[in-house]
């Protein structure tokens, strides 16, 4: 494991529950904010970290520069319990399983919960070491327009059907031994980075653009 400089790393006290919300955030948008606010409440998390990815290992096209995506995300998501971090670049990891292993090493004694949108559960079985991820930490899957059927009939959902807990039990997910996952229905937000890029409102070059432009 690399030795990490302490100063620009996210902080969580021992015993804290921390939601990990990984993404390209190219660009960050209201959908991410919406998921974050609901996840903090429904999962009763102490903190939630946005892990701004150096680049999704399954996506061909590289995203906008990391610094611009982080700056944009920080401008949009302001909440005392949310930290926006490029820690995967600092750890030198791209695959989520590697990131999680490294975080568990560097932050022992914290309760991590992986958070992702329903579209990601649908393709989860294509992720590197996806079973290890399922069996290593609890996972919250958040509803996304048009994605519920694909998510709930996915390879991962079927393989781990026994490990699913009811949404009303979401507050206990953080303490549940893995494998454990739940599907959180929240009010849907039909917004995506793809759509914003197609509208040409984000090229990633001008990170100082005010959030209201998106
Ligand atoms: N509107 C939304 N509702 C629910 N989850 C979302 C929404 N937008 C993004 N997410 C989730 O946020 C995480 C990060 O997503 P990402 O940064 O790729 O945004 P995106 O809008 O899906 O981007 P793209 O359109 O480029 O794929 C993923 O787990 C994704 O499923
Ligand atoms: O580890 C993998 O194989 C893997 C494959 C696809 C996506 N991911 C992660 O899933 C998160 C969401 O990715 P994205 O691009 O949909 O925002 C982000 O943290 C990615 O690194 C991870």
UniProtKB/TrEMBL annotation:
Keywords: ATP-binding, NAD, Nucleotide-binding, Nucleotidyltransferase, Pyridine nucleotide biosynthesis, Transferase
EC category: transferase
A GO term for molecular function: nicotinate-nucleotide adenylyltransferase activity
Pathway: Cofactor biosynthesis; NAD(+) biosynthesis; deamido-NAD(+) from nicotinate D-ribonucleotide: step 1/1
InterPro entries tied to this protein: Cyt_trans-like, NadD/NMNAT, Rossmann-like_a/b/a_fold
Ranges of residues in domain Cytidyltransferase-like: 20-198
Species the sequence originates in: Roseinatronobacter thiooxidans
Reaction catalysed by this enzyme: nicotinate beta-D-ribonucleotide + ATP + H(+) = deamido-NAD(+) + diphosphate
Name of this chain's protein: Probable nicotinate-nucleotide adenylyltransferase
EC code(s) of this entry: 2.7.7.18
């Amino acid at each position: 494991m690399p030795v990490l400089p302490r100063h620009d790393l996210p902080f969580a006290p021992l015993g804290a529950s921390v939601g990990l919300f990984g993404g390209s955030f190219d660009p960050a948008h209201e959908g991410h904010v919406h998921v974050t606010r609901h996840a903090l409440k429904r999962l009763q998390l102490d903190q939630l970290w946005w892990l701004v990815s150096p680049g999704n290992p399954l996506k061909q096209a590289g995203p906008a520069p990391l610094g611009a995506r982080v700056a944009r995300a920080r401008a949009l998501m302001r909440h005392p319990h949310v930290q926006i971090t490029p820690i995967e670049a600092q750890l030198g990891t791209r695959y989520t399983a590697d990131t999680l292993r490294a975080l568990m090493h560097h932050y022992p004694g914290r309760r991590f919960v992986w958070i992702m949108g329903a579209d990601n559960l649908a393709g989860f079985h294509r992720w590197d070491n996806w079973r290890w991820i399922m069996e290593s930490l609890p996972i919250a899957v958040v509803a996304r327009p048009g994605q519920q059927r694909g998510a709930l009939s996915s390879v991962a959902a079927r393989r781990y059907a026994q490990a699913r807990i009811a949404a009303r039990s979401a507050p206990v997910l953080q303490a549940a031994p893995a494998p454990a996952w739940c599907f959180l229905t929240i009010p849907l937000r039909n917004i995506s980075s793809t759509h914003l890029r197609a509208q040409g409102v984000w090229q990633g070059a001008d990170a100082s653009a005010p959030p209201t432009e998106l």
